[in-house]
Amino acid sequence: MGKTRLESLSDFAEAAHARIQKDYLHINPVVGLHQGMRDIGFPTDMMTIDCLKTQRRIIILLSDEQPDILSYQFAYRDKDPADSFEVMAFKELTEQILYDWIAKYFATEDN
pTM, whole model, 2 decimals? Predict the structure, then answer.
């Protein structure tokens, strides 16, 4: 049996996180996996990638109802996410894409 989408996403995030920590001294992303949406009736797993310094957050959703799709949004830790999410084919996601998202969205002038 192959990896689940959540396992693959987690592996990509772990590898991107390690590279970010080497390449950017001031970016230390905090990655969280959340399955609580399932408890309230949504067949969806969520990953959040947070930057405590900038208060920015990347939200990634994996819905059982759309197994080939990944939904994502660039948001803020202290604000509710917008109603709409960008989508991409899950098979197109790579460690490099996650790395680029983190580097570009969490970057500040001093890193």
Answer: 0.92
